[in-house]
User: What shape does this take?
Amino acid sequence: MKIESKCLHAGYTPKNGDPGVMPIVQSTTYVFDSCDHVAELFDMPTECMYSRFANPTCDAVEKKIAALEGGVGAMLTSSGQAASLLSILNVCSAGDSFVSTGTIYGGTVNLFAVTLKKLGIECIWVDEEASAEEISKAFKPNTKAMFGETIANPALKVCDIEKFAKIAHAHNVPLIIDNTFATPFLCRPFEWGADIIVHSTTKYMDGHAVQGGGVIVDSGNFDWTSSDKFTDFTTPDESYHGVVYTESFGKAAYIIKARMQLMRDFGCYPSAHSAFLLNLGLETLAVRMPRYCENALAMAKFFKKSDKIASVSYPGLEGDSNYTLAQKYLPNGTSGVVSISIKGGRDAAVRFMDALKLARDEVHVADIRTCVLHPASATHRQLTDEQLVACGIDGGMVRFSCGIENIEDIMADAQLGLDAI
Ligand SMILES: *Cc1c(COP(=O)(O)O)cnc(C)c1O
Assistant: This one.
């Protein structure tokens, strides 16, 4: 099936007399005939046994997302943050390190720089524009993974996934890619060599702003036995009566280990109802994504023409510094998010924002409805103007996240904002 059809049909195939729509299995427990059967499930968890780490509705959505990304398996989490956290904890323990580009989502920066550090895991930051030789110097013997984001939120930088994959593989570590903004409709990182994908499904995948969630997807391509770095995969897990993940689960070793160890212990699993809502969003993903992209490109061109705007960032806009990479990795569009910098700084940006009627001022992005955020007075509020400049944000910056409304309405609204400056 092509991706448009997978959005509707992957993951759940009703049999004779089954419900046509994937049902919500709102049960924490499952009933078994015998102790032997339950014992077998503990050896080889092929069926759902407890909803802290597996549920039939969630399972169907996991299979759909794995199919969309082209992976061997997926695991839902209760947020995008939980997906990023578990993706690293599945390969790194205290005393290990991993390499990440700094141009990633701010919440992930906090997780990596502050919270993982407290757990004894070091994040080594690299400049993603540096040469492969330069980036390679960051790797240490204890480095266990490399991390990047397809389209960075909010910097809107496009990751050179192929380059990253080559560097990671030369050091025998997997490449983990946060594919939230692109979604598998616009980019499938496994096709460029990434090994693991994470998403905040809260954004385009859900699309409707009705539930938060995340997912980890395993390509099945990374060979955990190729070096002595991943002994947790290749030697018996004492917490699971001696299972050796690579031997028992082959290509799905990573994603099954994540469920059997990490989801078992952390329990950040979504409810069946959340998974059901996520599935509704996924069913229309392939219809929505082109529309977001089309609207955003039109808005990028609209803003580019205004003499009240100092700069426009949109990787799909010809002349953008990320245009060449975007043409390679995102030929069908670069999502709905445009970043603009308004002349006159903070005050002008606030006047622009407050005059908007259709576009909502929200701490959200990638919604079905157009929404805007002013980083200087919201997410980066504590910083002075000088500090803002240091982290690439100026007081005039507005993150403009296009929804799927009629473009003329979005433009008319933006014009109200520009007129108010
Ligand atoms: C929002 C976001 C996250 C975090 O996801 P939550 O669902 O809010 O926990 C991670 N990565 C990216 C790129 C995001 O935009």
User: Anything to note?
Assistant: The pocket of pyridoxal-5'-phosphate is lined by residues 79-81, 105, 107-108, 149, 153, 178, 180-181, 200, 202-203, 212, 214 (CB under 6 Å). The radius of gyration is 22 Å.
